[in-house]
Amino acid sequence: MTMKTKHHIPSEVLSAYSTGSLPEAFSIIVACHISLCDQCRAEVEAFDTIGGVLIDNEEMANIDLNSFEKTMKLIDKQDNSHLVPSLKSNDIYPTPLKNYFGGSVENIKWKSVGGGIKQAMLLNNKEASARLLSIPPGAQLPDHSHKGLEMTMVLQGSFSDEIDSFYRGDVELGDDHLTHTPKAGMDEHCICIAATEAPLVFNSWLPKLLQPFIRI
Ligand SMILES: [Zn+2]
Predict the structure, then answer these.
(1) How close is the Cα of 5 to the center of ligand 1, in Å?
(2) Which of 51, 80, 155, 170 has the most neighbouring CB atoms within 10 Å?
(3) pLDDT digits (tens, 9 = 90+) for 47-85
(4) What are phi and psi for residue 30, nearest 5 degrees?
């Protein structure tokens, strides 16, 4: 059974991904999500197209007041045939993720963090970190609030918290106002990828970017 993705990535984040201004840890999740979600991938393609057209227009000597309208007409004429259907796979780790553990699941360096919960760090730099989490069926993560933004996507199984239930491909976005207690579904281990903003980033761009969206 294929579940339809219910929890998508906000447009502001997709746009930042398209322009390359998203920290790598968050970009990994966007890349994984759009490998599973036609809707968000189409949105990223649209941002890519708009970005490309705007760059082309900047090279024109005289941009008149009708340039926006012309830009939109140009976009309408774009050939969207490259929007190939996504390659749905039973493999739980989407291709963009595989570079981070050398393509082989045996290379994933799982470490126990207690309660049967395991994590594997994929990336940790001054902006943000990305890790895999494996939560046994029915187990609950300890109460935690976030120091900065956290973005989590389910790769296998499911989890539920005070917000909703999340299945493969679903993304949950949390900020420092969200204290939640995610609990894995009973069927199987819940495997997620989570990106977390570095706790000591004071002048973070992400909260500003998402202000209208998550009411910080
Ligand atoms: Zn989506």
Answers:
(1) 6
(2) 170
(3) 999 887 776 766 654 445 555 565 555 555 544 433 433
(4) -60, -45
Backbone torsions φ then ψ of 48, nearest 5 degrees: -60, -45
Distance 215 CA to ligand 1 centre (A): 21
The residue type at 4: K
What would the two tokens of residue 103 be? 């393509």
Ligand 1 mean position, distance from CA 7 (Å): 7
**Among positive and negative, which fits the CA dihedral 85, 14, 12, 178?**
positive
Give the pair of three-digit tokens for residue 25.
Answer: 């840890």
Residues in the chain: 216
CB atoms closer than 10 angstroms to residue 146:
17
Structural domains in the chain plus CATH codes: 95-214 (2.60.120.10)
